[in-house]
Please model this.
Amino acid sequence: AKVGGKGLFVKELENNLLSNESDIAVHSMKDVPMELPSGLIITCIIKREDPRDAFISNQYQSIHDLPNNAVVGTSSLRRQCQLLALRPDLNIKWLRGNINTRLKKLDNNEYDAIILAAAGIKRMGWENRISSILDTSECLPAVGQGAIGIETLSTNQTVNKLLSPHNHAETAYRLMAERALNKQLNGGCQVPIAGHATINNNNLELNALVGQVDGKKIIKASITGSVSEAEALGRELGNELISKGAKQILDSITI
Model:
């Protein structure tokens, strides 16, 4: 967020699309801004992997097993605020780099534990490194976490036709609700906003929160409705969080 704003992780790929150097761009939907550049569309969203967060440690099995003042690594304000709400004694230390780099820092004893997206670890085939999965009641996932989207030129009919069968409808509806929530809050991927949608028998439930970075105040809300209303549900829940004070929290955060 300090370097490139909301589009830091996708801008270069989008420029390749717009200059016809690439036919598709593959993104983690967690990193995709709510507004796409003119002429680009998310053509399909692949079936979602586990959206939850993974607790990884070489000594401890869960967040509750950590000793007082343990050093926990994360690159996410969303995770930080929820971890400190659970364990105010923890020493949260910023963690950068790709998955390999982060695991190496843990193995070099720079941290007692680190928190990473479970999806990335599982896709790499490194599930054996996961000590435990954080329940969504403990750490609500980021909007779009665990989902991969494919972006294309809206005019590239040949490619879009090839990709359309790969769209996973349930995942797409879940992300529609989550992303509408985030858009209503004017949030990016580097703010303490969490949003997680589930679908059961054509009913969509969306849980969300906005928290102070220190974890001392967390605003939560949820909403349930028809899958067909996914986007409207996200907007409505965003407005509910705003009415409870979410905007004041977000406005006070300087990254």
Summary: The longest strand covers residues 203-211.
